[in-house]
What does this fold into?
Amino acid sequence: DVKVTQSSRYLVKRTGEKVFLECVQDMDHENMFWYRQDPGLGLRLIYFSYDVKMKEKGDIPEGYSVSREKKERFSLILESASTNQTSMYLCASSTQGRRTSGRHEQYFGPGTRLTVT
Amino acid sequence: AQSVTQLGSHVSVSEGALVLLRCNYSSSVPPYLFWYVQYPNQGLQLLLKYTSAATLVKGINGFEAEFKKSETSFHLTKPSAHMSDAAEYFCAVSEVDSSYKLIFGSGTRLLVRP
It folds into this structure.
């Protein structure tokens, strides 16, 4: 069974702290994604990665950075957390396999609900 | 770039009634289309996907969706709602470029009344 895990389900941090959100997938997927989810806004892409050590900005990268040192792990970093980064963070992965449709199907982790006070 | 519109942020139905959740996308090029479901405090789970084969796609839990190119729509239906269907539903479309990105709608929360 495919699996994407995230290091924490709930996290409370103070303004200005450096925050690390970890995501691990066991499907040998090449692509990994970080989204934030806010009511009424759906999922917005923060960063994504097609390969180890590669990263690309999504729609809302400001205030975030990422790291992908190993294929299975994709970390989201909030350099200096702010209250407007209070949100649900979702990690996903997908394959670059031969079947075109399969490349787009994303598998999601359970999410991390981050509160910044 | 693609965009996805989900009409209705909240839909309320009675148990046993028809469920209809609407999704329209922007591209003239037939994309790949997905419906995901999210139960409270969980991640997203794939319900079904359209990948240019049959236009009527059957998914899990009795849901199905029909791809209509002329209407650029991919509405989700279920003949008879169950209390366990209460969740948030997201429509997503693949980006038309060579990336692997999905563009998500803003979501529709389905409420099922007893």
